[in-house]
Amino acid sequence: MNIGRPEFFNVVSFKLRAALRSVSRFASFLNHKWSQEKKFPPMSSEINSHIHEFLAYYTSLDDEPGYAVLLKGAWGAGKTWYIRQEMKLLEREDRPFLYVSLYGVRSTDDIEAEFFRQLHPFLSSKGMVIAGKFMKSALSATLRFDWDGDGKADGAASAKGVDISVPDLIKKSRESVLVFDDLERSSMSLVTLLGYINNFVENEGYKVIILANEDEIPKDEAIPGRRSSSGCESESEGEPNEPSQAGNLSYRRIKEKLVGRTFEVSSDFKGAVHNFTRNVRDRRVRELYEEQEESIAQCFVLSKYNNLRHLKQALWEFERFCGWVEPSVLTKPGLIEHLLRLFLVLSFEVRSGSISPTDIRSMEAVPFAGLYRDGSSSVNNLKEVLDKYVGLDLHEPFLENSIWVDFFDKGFVSPERLNESLRKTSYFEDENKESWVKLWHWRDLPDDKFPRVMEEVRRIFIDEVFDDPGVLKHVAGLFIFFSENGLLDMSSDDVVEAATDHVDRMAEQGILSGSASDGPLWLEDESWAGLGFMKREDPGFAKVCDYIRSKREEVRQRSLPEKAIDLLKLMDGKTDLFYQRLVHTNSKENWYYETPILAHVNRSDFINTLLGVSPRDFQNICAAIKDRYKHHIFNRAIQSEKGWLESVSSSLEEESGRRKGTIGGLRIEMAVNGYFQEAVNSIEESNS
């Protein structure tokens, strides 16, 4: 690009003036540093001591500096925390700091209102704001004044013209240091906002500190004014456009005029951790953080996110997480430290968006990512993330992985499941006598012990019976895994066949009776007893789970007449449990909400029992019948109860007629019309 001689000298002159300003500022800083070094308050951390030293010099200037200081850094680097520490160190009675976050700020009025609140807390209190609005309303009429006492009005004034200017009140405190945080998060135009801040610096003589994440500042907002030859708008101060690429021109031009010094805030890990742990209420967790500071630092550094905000949230959430852990579990040597490391890593990665909570389900498969022929993307991604943490044992979820998923996705876990899972870890190996649990922790078994444990589990698997289908699922998943890796002389098909035979033996001995699971149904094929199933995505494992379900359903169907008798007994005095057994709720007692058990209840026995219970139990039973069918999604599975409902409703209607004119008769009539008939209608609607 060709530049004419006048334009060339303008550019050179512009650059020279900028350079001279920088040299002048630096010389002034050195002069103050040498002459007033002893007056500066000490900084507690050495990481950002150079910034503290300059801010101490800058805020102590007697003359107007004529420029602002910019503190930059990524989100979560601790800029806000750092400047608040500086404010405590540098603030004096005659030099207050006024701080405002620009996050979401839409106008300069919002900024001035916040400054006014800090300068005049009493006047800006809620009570005074309400009183001010009342007075302004009461004085909205014109006031007339009689200056000479002759009874005639000599003048008038309208209260509408009387207004207290917030900017004027702020200007009365010119010694204040103004701090503008979150520059990039403002909802205002960047150009307008920087122009507003520049007015405080250039025209009002304030000392101003700006905090920003420059990586997030819009790079394409043009400065209003005259247009350049390229068509972009630029400042109208007569200064030439800097010969550079368009894009970030506007921000750089304004920054060059407004900002005299720029510093990048480094994460002060040690100072931040000490500050965060002060807010931890649990003494045990607070002492843990103090003891494990080096381990926490290792996790933080290896994450490479340098985000103190994420660290604070993780440390505070871990305190809450530990509140669900039984004290006897926490005392196991090494357990809580291992749990902390894994919690921090998962928290950092989930909060950064590198993994989702559901990705944690694949954690057990990470060490074997190379064995997956399909190249599972979730497993490979998780492996890539966790491989950053060199030297930390993270490739095992430690807890049942669904517990991590629940916590990071929903913010809550079942304390019972959490403690059960912790007691199944290798830290309780001496207490875990069952051989299948030792086999699940095969990574911790020495070469000479592994064959003995394997043979013990295999013997029970082939010849005996496990006491719960959950154990069988664990063993089937483990054996499929060992078979694929040459550690078991059975093929995967052989394992599946032996597992189905084992299910048949369990059914014969009555082990499959009862509810399918005490936990959510989606967890039935995910985990049991606090440990996740191996090879749960394998087709062979799915066949075993399906066979258990079908066999259990056979057992349940055969046992329904007997279960119906037990249900009938709950109608007298235990109607709350009767309700939970029949109606879909969040209770683990929801045994029959999609099982047609009422079709197996003797109608005459039901009616006689219903008519003999207390009015309160009568009402609860009727409510259970009506609510049972309000969820149409389950009605298809219990359609066979329709005939039972119609027969009971008809018999009750006849009984109501026989008792007409009595309270009992009216109660039965209302039950038929308001409950039983409603139930019939609901189940019919599900068919249409």
Keywords:
single chain; 688 residues; mainly alpha; Rossmann fold; 5 domains; five-stranded parallel β-sheet; two-stranded antiparallel ribbon; 28 helices; 9 strands; KAP NTPase domain-containing protein; KAP_P-loop; P-loop_NTPase
Q: How would you characterize this protein structure?
A:
With 688 residues, the protein is mainly alpha-helical. It contains 28 helices and 9 strands. The chain has 5 domains: 1-32; 40-139 and 166-223 and 246-264, Rossmann fold (3-Layer(aba) Sandwich); 269-428, no CATH class; 435-555, no CATH class; 570-685. A 5-stranded parallel β-sheet has the order 2-5-6-1-7, sandwiched between helices. The chain has a two-stranded antiparallel ribbon with strand order 3-4. A hairpin with a 2-residue loop joins strand 8 (527-528) and strand 9. Helix 1 (5-36) packs across helix 2 (49-59). The chain is flat, with a radius of gyration of 37 Å.
Fold blueprint:
Elements: H1 5-36, H2 49-59, E1 68-72, H3 79-90, E2 97-101, H4 108-119, H5 126-138, E3 142-145, E4 155-158, H6 166-171, E5 177-181, H7 190-202, E6 207-212, H8 249-258, E7 259-264, H9 269-277, H10 283-291, H11 293-303, H12 308-322, H13 327-330, H14 335-352, H15 377-386, H16 401-410, H17 415-423, H18 435-440, H19 450-463, H20 469-484, H21 492-508, E8 527-528, E9 531-532, H22 539-569, H23 575-582, H24 603-612, H25 615-628, H26 632-635, H27 642-658, H28 663-685
Parallel strand pairs: 1-6, 1-7, 2-5, 5-6
Antiparallel strand pairs: 3-4, 8-9
Helix pairs in contact: 1-2, 7-8, 9-12, 11-14, 12-14, 20-21, 20-22, 21-22, 23-25, 24-27, 25-28, 27-28
